[in-house]
Amino acid sequence: MTLRQGPGLLAVVSAIMIAATPSLAWRATNSHTVNPLSPTAFEVIGRGGISSVDYWCAAGDYARRVLEAPLHQRIYISRPRGHAETENAKSAVQFSLDPPADADLKPGLLLTVTRPGDNLSAWGAWNLCVPQTGQAG
Prior knowledge:
By secondary structure, the chain is α+β, with helices and mostly antiparallel strands.
């Protein structure tokens, strides 16, 4: 018996391989899930009661421990809080080590996750984990 390779078979094989691939999700120090989007971008998945500090802590933890970003590296919100792109979740924030195009990069007075371009240093974001865990990272 021979298998004929065609577009249908390729799609089925691809779907099976994707389903069998272990998730690339990473768990931050504060137990929030972080999913990679690219080598410099990622999405923090929200759960009930997650605050802006929680999003930034997870972003800083991922940037430092996974991407090995230097302490002075800026982390930018590339897409504010909204539906997740990487999994079925109602709340997620996308971050990047690269500034988003045409975003206002001036620092705000409040720590939010609602404005593209808002940013913190990797150290500043990572340090937000300290009150939650007693230690950064």
